[in-house]
Amino acid sequence: MAERERFHIGPIEGVRVGRFGFGINTTFIVYRIDDTLIDTGPPNQWSPVKRFVDERPVRQLLLTHHHEDHSGNAARLSQHLKLTPMAPEPGRAKLARGFRTPPLQRLIWGRPEPVETAPLAAQLALSDGSPINPIATPGHAKDLTCYHLPKQGWLFSGDLYLSRKLRYLRSDENLTQLMDSLRRVLALEFDTLLCPHRGPVAGGHEALSAKLRYLEQLCERAQALASQGKSDTAILHALLGPEDWLGHLSRYNLSKINLVRQALKVPL
Ligand SMILES: [Zn+2]
After folding, report:
1. Rounded-to-integer distance, Cα 222 and Cα 257, Å
2. Environment class of residue 207 by beta-carbon count within 10 Å: exposed (0-12), middle (13-18) or buried (19+)?
3. How far is the CA of 65 from the centre of ligand 1 (A)?
4. Distance from the CA of 47 to the center of ligand 1, in angstroms?
5. Domains of the chain (ranges, CATH numbers)
6. Neighbouring residues of 237: CB distance < 8 A, sequence distance ≥ 6
7. What is the pTM of this model?
8. 231 Cα to the center of ligand 1, angstroms
9. CA 158 to CA 145: how far, in whole Å?
10. What is the pLDDT of residues 25-59, one digit of tens each?
11. β-pair type (36-38, 60-62)
12. pLDDT band at residue 20, thresholds of 50, 70 and 90?
């Protein structure tokens, strides 16, 4: 399987690719606005990504963070287009050196190749001159960066959104930082949110705000149960239900218990 869906939202185009179509967590959307490309898709989806990219000239390529579903074709695109992808500073060393990914992720996304990147330009803009403002939003990953286009009211959210109701967390995610990042982005004005997994979300500001409220409530409830002496597992069962196949299959790298344990640490 290759190209799964196309998106056209005004001047924004997107292509959804993915080896497996189990849901939004196994597919990925590469977005393009004119000659600006945002993220590159997973390494095992090079053919459909290349076809999409070859439809128009590309002037600049921006990465939201180093995870392989976002950066996985950056090395090939760099060679193919003869340009250097730009990446947020905290992820550049890891991108250059390469990194290992767990077996389940390798099955879904393939194996990423190391890639040399350039720092984000000081004045990022679309070809019509309208600004693209990078917003550092750590939590999901240290280098996660959203791209805000204030003139158009767009937010390219990387993995900041994903869902109104987060149920799993990676073992390396920091929920306190993630919630601070949601607050930072909610101080901006935008309407359409471009999530590379969920797809375009109209009313994106409200959706992100709902995600923050959900997480705040989850933290309050988890901490209230902990103060009554409940164990992490009892809190997990009460709030999110038992761990499911994703948690077990990923060896708890992507699991509900990670979310519960982080929710207990968030200062309220
Ligand atoms: Zn990610």
Report:
1. 11
2. middle
3. 7
4. 21
5. 3-204 (3.60.15.10)
6. none
7. 0.95
8. 29
9. 7
10. 789 999 999 999 999 999 999 999 999 999 999 99
11. parallel
12. confident
